[in-house]
Design goal:
about 300 residues, alpha/beta, 3-stranded parallel sheet, 3-stranded antiparallel sheet, 11 helices, disordered N terminus
């Protein structure tokens, strides 16, 4: 009995200190140095704590994601020495799961259907004398809120006012283990009024793919038992959206580690759309893994 008791506490201690991190690229192009840094950092964070590193392929953008890019991701990660659990998650295989959680929000009456196009929104904002290029132009004016449109053949937006009533006057928070764009670290607090002012009734599911980045990553991080979300600090201010959804679904809120971005000689963030030099090209040019790590200072 004494051995079993000691084993229980050893297991409990291990579970408490072990982390589960992940790398979640989109196969919309070839990986570059920025992806290498993100993958190597997430892998190192897990390995340092004898934890688990998972790989997720975020391929819900059906028009841009391609199999050739997905295959290249696996090749690049192998070259970087990054090893992951065999159960790779592919978001395109999980649409029914996202719809399940969308249904939960519908049953709580916290979402509504929206058929507005970008031009519809711009026209509505113009009618309110709000310049299209202003900060407020990001906030949806609520055109479809009272139309009772179906969420199953339209875009789906959260109803922030109803969410405020549902959750009450609470302060949400998350723990930042890295650094935000302005040096934010430690416990970060925010209220729903701040989120409403910044994002309004944001889209939680698109008509064409029946989910969104925000909904999919929230569900996936939960189902993959991710305890430490490591990603670029350009996503720091999106984190409150994920924390809000985690709260609505009664998910455990993971720790976050936002890291610096890898920039080019002009001080710009590396990007697939800007045709930043790919890892594949660097490899073909004979650049070694040690040289890659030296470039990244990791």
């Amino acid at each position: 009995m004494d051995v079993i008791y000691k084993l229980f506490w050893v297991i409990t201690y291990f579970i408490k200190i072990m982390i589960v991190s992940r790398f979640a690229p989109s196969p919309t192009g070839l990986l570059h140095l920025g992806h290498a840094y993100s993958a190597l950092l997430a892998f190192r964070l897990a390995k340092k704590r004898n934890g688990i590193f998972r790989l997720r392929i975020e391929n819900i953008d059906i028009t841009r994601c391609k199999k050739v890019y997905e295959d290249s991701i696996y090749e690049d990660l192998h070259w970087l020495g990054v090893k992951w659990k065999k159960d790779i998650v592919r978001q395109s295989d999980r649409i029914p799961l996202y719809q399940y959680y969308l249904k939960i929000l519908e049953e709580k009456d916290l979402v509504y259907g929206c058929k507005c196009s970008r031009s519809d929104i711009n026209n509505a904002l113009s009618a309110l004398s709000i310049p299209i290029n202003s900060f407020d132009s990001k906030i949806y004016p609520g055109t479809c809120k009272e139309k009772k449109l179906s969420i199953w053949n339209n875009n789906v937006r959260v109803d922030i006012e109803k969410i405020k009533k549902y959750l009450g006057n609470i302060i949400l928070s998350f723990n930042e283990n890295g650094l935000g764009p302005n040096g934010e670290t430690g416990v970060q607090h925010f209220d729903i009024n701040w989120l409403q002012k910044k994002y309004g009734d944001f889209i939680v599911a698109r008509k064409d793919i029946r989910t969104s980045y925000n909904l999919a990553v929230t569900v996936d991080d939960h189902s993959q038992n991710i305890s430490l979300v490591s990603r670029g600090n350009d996503l720091f201010y999106v984190t409150p959206i994920h924390v809000l959804l985690q709260k609505l679904f009664n998910f455990q809120i993971p720790n976050f580690f936002h890291h610096r971005l890898i920039i080019d000689k002009k001080g710009k963030k590396l990007s697939k759309t800007k045709k930043s030099v790919s890892l594949n090209q660097l490899r073909m040019e004979g650049i070694s893994l040690d040289e890659i790590k030296s470039m990244l200072d990791i």
